[in-house]
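Hey all, quick one. A colleague (J.T.) asked me to put the iron/sulfur cluster job into the tracker so the inputs and the C-alpha cells live in one place instead of scattered across chat threads. No bug as far as I know, just bookkeeping. Sequence used:
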Amino acid sequence: MSTKEYSNGEVTIVWKPEKCIHSGICVKTLPQVYHPKEKPWINPEKASSKELIMQVATCPSGALSIKQENKTMIKIEREDNGRKGRFVIYENDELAGEMTYVWAGEARFIIDHTGVEENFSGRGLGKQLVMKAVEYARNNNLKILPLCPFAKKVFDKDKGLEDVRA
Ligand code: SF4
C-alpha cells in the first residue's frame, strides 16, 4: 500500500490514499492545511502539531496517521471484564491515560471517565481515546453514551460522530 508523508518538522502526517474515503472531514476541520486540488495537498506547517494530531484523530477511515519525529509511540489497548472496561493509552510504553466505560445492554456502553496523566496533558491523548472507542463501536455495531464531560464535549463538537451516539 503506498503512503505519502508530509512533515512540519515536529510531526509527520502519513496519508494512505487507498484508505481515504473522501469524507472531507480533514478539509473541513483544517482548511488551511488540506487542499485536495493542490500539490502537495497537505501543508502541515500551516497548523500547530497539536492541531494536526487532533485533526488526524478524526479521520474516519484511518487514511491519515501521525508519525512523531521524536519517535513517540502511541498505543491504545482495551480491557474488558464483560460488565465494564477501559481503553488505556501508552506513550512509549508508559501509561499516559485511560477512558473507562460500563456496558448498558449488549449493544451500548457508557463512557464515564476520561483522564490523562498530568505530564501527558495537552497532546490530544484524551481525544485519541474517545476516537478509539468510536472506532471500536463502529466496527462492532455498538452505540456510545458519552456521560463523561470530556467525551460529551468531543461528541457535541463533532457531528460526524452522531452515527455511534446513543
Ligand atoms: S478525513 Fe480521512 S478519509 Fe476523510 S478525506 Fe480526509 S483523509 Fe480522507
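Adding what we noticed when we looked at it: The domain at 4-68 is CATH 3.30.70.20 (Alpha-Beta Plaits). The longest helix spans residues 125-139.
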